[in-house]
Amino acid sequence: MGILIDKMKEDDLAQVLAIEEEVFTFPWCREDFISEIKEGSEFWAAKEEEKIIGYVGFYKIEDEMQLVNLVVTKNRQGKAIGSDLLKWAIKRAKSLGVKKAILEVEAQNTRAISFYHKFGFAEVGIRNGYYKGKEDAVIMWAEI
Ligand SMILES: CC(C)(COP(=O)(O)OP(=O)(O)OC[C@H]1O[C@@H](n2cnc3c(N)ncnc32)[C@H](O)[C@@H]1OP(=O)(O)O)[C@@H](O)C(=O)NCCC(=O)NCCS
Questions:
Q1: Residue 61: predicted pLDDT
Q2: What domain range is 124 assigned to?
Q3: Number of independent structural domains in the chain
Q4: What's 18's domain CATH number?
Q5: In sequence order, what are the beta bridge partners of 72?
Q6: pTM of the model
């Protein structure tokens, strides 16, 4: 069955919040998504038969995109869905005039760091205690 990537809707949030809880040590809550959307972030969800299996969010500042999250449900990781979502977000951001991308990722998340390396992201800094004062974040950057 094919995968569709579609703009995330408020109705999707229940599924999205369940995935946040499943995947992250520091999951986002409903208010986090709503305030990000109000401030201009766009979120895109990958769906298979109406079921959300991953999503990506970013916002644009001048010619740069800040990736705010990228997630694939645990049972679908390693099957190129994350790659499809990131390619989609980059294509969409480029259509808005974006030329560079920046993101933060948990310093211990070696899997995601390798994933971003594959897309040409380089590690350019560390934010100490970025995640609720507990975990450091690696800042990664790429020309897209
Ligand atoms: C990181 C994440 C989005 C990647 O999505 P995915 O669909 O699992 O990844 P893909 O199948 O598209 O893999 C693409 C590349 O990433 C790298 N990669 C993926 N899984 C990996 C692993 N377990 N170890 C090392 N590298 C890995 C590989 O280079 C892979 O390319 P290859 O298949 O040609 O070897 C996904 O694993 C995820 O949701 N993780 C939990 C949430 C998270 O950490 N998000 C990122 C921080 S915001």
A1: 96
A2: 4-143
A3: 1
A4: 3.40.630.30
A5: 54
A6: 0.95
